[in-house]
Structures are given as structure tokens and as C-alpha cells.
Amino acid sequence: MSVEKNRKLLLSVFNAIEQRNDQRFSELLHSDFEIHWPPSLPYGEGKSKTWTETWNPFQPTELERRMDPRVVVANEAEVVVLWRQRGLSPAGERFDGEVLDLYQVREGKLLRAQMFYFDAVAVANFLGKAMDRPRISGT
Fold this sequence. Notes:
The protein is an alpha+beta fold and 139 residues long. The chain has one domain: Nuclear Transport Factor 2, Chain: A (Roll). It has helices spanning 3-18, 22-27, 51-55, 62-65, 120-132, and strands spanning 29-36, 70-74, 78-88, 94-106, 109-117.
């Protein structure tokens, strides 16, 4: 697959995630797709919660769902993307952090994804506090 097609594939993946379009996201995945998150996060390796289950409550608007993906480098088999993880806690606290991902592509589909958070501790702290607090009425 060409470098440009791989770049477009990954931007389509991010668009599907931002739009919460599960059908489109699934169409972009290879049948052998695997994803690897840092084990320290609630949706990390071996955890029962998914990224979507974890972040959906903290991404109520388009602003929080916006990831601003930027392809850093791509070749015929791999793509590296820098993006932003955003969230809004029930108490009104905001999170905005950078993530760098390495993706493998096969047969025009996303085969493997591995996420590298610049500050996984800050992500875990935000989620820990946000999940422990009761929701504020009207938010």
C-alpha cells in the first residue's frame, strides 16, 4: 500500500473515532487487529474496560472528542501519529495531553496499534479523580 493511502487510512480511523462511528471504525480494521494501551491505564493491557467505555463519559462535546491527529511519518507498512487526548470531568476539570501512536497497516486496513502517552500518570490521575466524583447536576 502506498504511503499516502496509509496516511489517509489513519486519518479516516481518527475521524471515525471522533465521530463515534463504530461501523466505519470496524470497516477500517484488519481481521487480525490488535491494540496495545499502557498497562497503567484503566483500559490498558488485561483490563476489562475499553478506551471508549472509559472516555465517553468525559467527552460530552465535540471539543473533548477532537483529537487533532497529525501524521508524523509513514511508510508502506507503518504510520506514526501524534494526537491529543482530551476530557472533562464531572467537576469541570479538563485534561489535554499528547499521545504518540505506532500503527501497522496490512492489506489497506489497520492491523496493530500501540499507544505511547507522554504522561500516562497524568492520564491515570485525571481518570481516577473523574471516576470517583459524583456527577454534578446539569453537566
